[in-house]
Amino acid sequence: MTDAHDLTAPHEPLVRRIEAEATVIGDQILRIDHFLNHRIEPAFIVDMGRELARRMSAFHPTMILTAEASGIAPGLVVAQVLNVPLVYAKKYAPQVESPFISRVIPSPTKGGETKLVMSQRYVQPGARVVLVDDFLSNGRTAVALVEMAREAGAEVLAAGFIVEKRFKRGHEAVEALGVPVATLAQVERLEHGKAVLRQPQA
Ligand SMILES: O=P(O)(O)OC[C@H]1O[C@H](OP(=O)(O)OP(=O)(O)O)[C@H](O)[C@@H]1O
Fold first, then answer.
1. Which of 19, 61, 117, 162 sees the fewest Cβ atoms within 10 Å?
2. What is the pTM of this model?
């Protein structure tokens, strides 16, 4: 089994790019959408997805689960490397044929509420699920996905994220559900227009 330290080892290429290129607004907002979730660099998202897949491979998932929209790119890479299907809970066109499972969560970045909807046709009892998303912040999206997968009768083995904000409660919230968390970059805090990250081992 992959140990906890390995699951959260900082991925040096990502750490360096966040340090050099992130737009930081106040002590809460970290913008790296020029390579992660608005403009996507294929070679870099594949590099990061491969590293997440390497850490997830020990869990032997039968499917990857994410949420629309920003989780799809890293989720697709992890799914491709592990040769399993990717399912994404819909947010923006949540008319899903019955039977389905849904959760309403506070919208992480837009205010208001977001509805996540997932068809039970694509998450079957006994499925071995690994969650993947681009960001882990308060963890409400990930917690909702864990609950939805379990409601469908699936087993949730682990959750992997490209970036986590360690100053939010998401990591603890997901682990409290008994789900190990893997992340490639850990943002400890945002200050003076810069992101302060956990550093890779020399
Ligand atoms: O840990 P949390 O507090 O739940 O925040 C993390 C979530 O926030 C973002 O989604 P968002 O809905 O903002 O954007 P998207 O529609 O582009 O995926 C991100 O893609 C994660 O799914």
1. 19
2. 0.96
